[in-house]
Amino acid sequence: MSTDPVAANIHAWDGRVADHLVAYGAEAFADDPTALRAETEVQLLAPHLPGGSLEGLDVVHLQCHIGVDTISLARRGARAVGTDLSGEAVAAARALAARAGTSDVTFVRCRNEDAPDVLGREFDVVLTSVGVLAWLSDLDSWARAVARLLRPGGVFLVYDAHPMLYALEYERDDGQLVLGKPYFARETPVEISDGLTYAAPARADVTYEWPHHLAEVLTAVLQAGLRIEAFGEHRTMPWAALPGMDRTERGFALPPGSPECPLMFSLVARR
Length: 271
Ligand SMILES: C[S@@+](CC[C@H](N)C(=O)[O-])C[C@H]1O[C@@H](n2cnc3c(N)ncnc32)[C@H](O)[C@@H]1O
Hints:
Strand order of the largest sheet: 3-2-1-4-5-12-8
Number of helices: 9
Low-confidence stretches: none
Largest sheet: 7 strands, mixed
Bound molecules: S-adenosylmethionine
Mean pLDDT: 94
CATH superfamily: Vaccinia Virus protein VP39
Radius of gyration: 18 Å
Structural class: alpha/beta
CATH architecture: 3-Layer(aba) Sandwich
Distance between the termini: 37 Å
């Protein structure tokens, strides 16, 4: 492949930031000190945290995008650091935090793999969620970085689209769930040029996604030396990835009578 897929992806993510600031309602979020996001992530983490709370904990949020969830973690009492490889996303996150007047949140531009050396310290919690793993070519180095970022006893959460969802054809209008894309991991990324994102129609930049099957995710985490404490497969998700999804109290779901498919997965592990 002559194109550098990571550079192409970051170019695309840089270009999405302005649209996503609007789609996320980011300024209204910043201006309302009671506004909180990342509710599902916090619920998934709570049973594994001392006192069930992020209060007073050092948290690093990998692939934080425009920082809305990271600021939410700080509003819940964490000392939060967000990292992302998109310079535009990190600049937007810093501007939102300044607008919100949130202390205890900082943003750093770096790759996940470089985060342990760039940040130079350990954390109580590492969190990454909602549209993250597909952008990574190598889950082994990702998991090793997560383990290096954690203090002994620290907790890791990944909550992301289920690999089965990524393998489906997204744009069918006949209600059928059809496997049209690779499920199993492979070295060559899948080229995407539909301009669709989870939050807004985006510029039609070409992006590259790497499929990662569940066993690959689990093996990477275990081989990095982490102990898995919880694993979940979920029937609801935070965005309407497929046509005809119903909006429910817990997120978007396939309509009643549809074939079944897990939409998200969650994994909590401890160093
Ligand atoms: C779908 S967004 C994450 C959204 C975020 N969870 C939220 O709810 O706002 C994916 C993020 O991953 C970042 N990203 C993509 N490839 C990356 C890489 N190789 N290393 C680090 N970050 C990357 C992008 O810049 C983008 O901000």
